[in-house]
Amino acid sequence: MSTKQEIGVTQGTTNVFDDLGFADAGERQTKTRLALAVNQLLAGRKLKQREIAELLRIPQPKVSALKNYRLDQFSVERLLAFLTALDQDVEILIRPRQTASGVGHISVSAGQ
User: Fold this and answer.
1) pTM, rounded to two decimals
2) Are 10 and 57 in contact (CB under 8 A)?
3) Residue 78 CB: number of other CB atoms within 10 A?
4) pLDDT, tens digit, 9 for 90 and up, residues 9-42
5) How many Å apart are CA 77 and CA 92, to the nearest integer?
6) Which residue has the higher pLDDT, 87 or 17?
7) How far apart are the C-alpha atoms of 107 and 104, rounded to whole Å?
8) Which residues in 56-65 are b (16+ Cβ under 10 Å) and which e?
C-alpha cells in the first residue's frame, strides 16, 4: 500500500537569499556572483592555492574560504579588487530604475 503526498512548490524570485529571508540579500547575491566570476577565472588558470594567495595578496586560508563561497570575510570592494588583479575590467553602470515603484537593485553580470 503506497500513499502519495502532495508537495507544494513555491515560485522563487531571482534572489535565493531574499527567498530565504536574509536582511542583506542583495549584498549576499552580489558577493556570490562576484566570487563566482573570480573562482571561474582562477579555475581557468589552474593555480595552486599558494599561488592564488600570492596573486590576490591574501593568506591561504582566505583562498579556501573564497573557493568555498564563505564570503562573510570579503567585502564587495575586495572581490572587485580580486577581479582587477585577475586582469579583468570592472564597469559599474548606474541608471534610473525601470519602474517607478519599489527600490533599485544591484545586478552583476560577467561578460566573456
Assistant:
1) 0.78
2) no
3) 16
4) 777 777 888 888 878 888 899 999 999 999 999 9
5) 12
6) 87
7) 10
8) bebeeebbeb
Which three cell numbers, joined as nine digits, stand for 58? 591574501
Phi, psi (degrees; rounded to nearest 5) at 24: -105, 40
Q: C-alpha cell of 1? A: 500500500
22-85 classified as CATH 1.10.260.40 = yes
Q: Dihedral of CA 54/85/111/64: which sign?
A: positive
Q: What is the mean pLDDT of residues 89-106?
A: 80
| List of residues 6+ apart from 66 with CB closer than 8 A | 35, 38, 39, 56, 58, 74, 82
